[in-house]
Records
---
Amino acid sequence: MNLTLRTVRQDELSEFKKEMQRAFQLGAEAEYGETDMQILPEADIDRSLETDGSIAYAAVIGNEIVGGAIIVINEQTQHNHLDFLFVKVGVQSKGIGQAIWSEIERLHPDTKVWETCTPYFEKRNIHFYINRCGFHAVEFYNPKHPDPHESGKPDMDSDDDGCMFRFEKVMK
């Protein structure tokens, strides 16, 4: 696979966000069924893009964007964060997600620790981060142990509001 990562151009940003939202929407709907609720609001993507150290990458094969990621790099601590990673709907299960992650690691070799979170119901993501990318689950956010960085975003089921796994990958 000849995948490359490049920063998202301004003229691609709107479509990049839509493809990311579509991928996240279908992932949640695969677990819960169709919903009118927007799983990944544009405001969440914008908040990530506006964070100091944020980089939005488009994953490209040939001339086609097949996915992407938004990461946040802390140059001082090198404790970096993967905010979002997605593979475009219709091209999943072909190793693209793993290729995106491998390329991110290659582009940021000074990273000491990578961190990311995923909803508890995203079994596919949990498998991907642990079994494919080498992350470890280090914390489980839930109503009795909320994420200290979030202000309580609604989830599909109010009983499970805020249930997320936090993963870390310590680099060698």
---
Amino acid sequence: MRGFTVVAAFLLALALMPASAQISRPRGFLIERDRFASLQDQLTNRLRATRTDQKAYVAYVVKLVRQGKIQRSLVVAIERYAIRRNESFPFPFFERAMKYECGKRGVNLPPVKQFASTKLPATR
């Protein structure tokens, strides 16, 4: 019974101790600087693009957005659509919807397979 009271006293003392942060940041680290993820990081993470060809495809889509060939809002809307279609593996839905929407707008978007064996396609 004495062992139980010692353990109970230890747990009570542990519970009453003030909490401290577990993640330490280096000095001068500003949270505001990295507050939002870039479009490429957002697409890679939310679409679960894990293979190198999928990451290259996402990089190419972001490159088209930077060049002004497709709108950022369109890419984000298609990303959300793909996640709604299949939350576990949304990338194939994103690829198909992007191909369709870019085709309607006159932008040639190659399939992911092309990114597996080649470098990024040249854009005009």
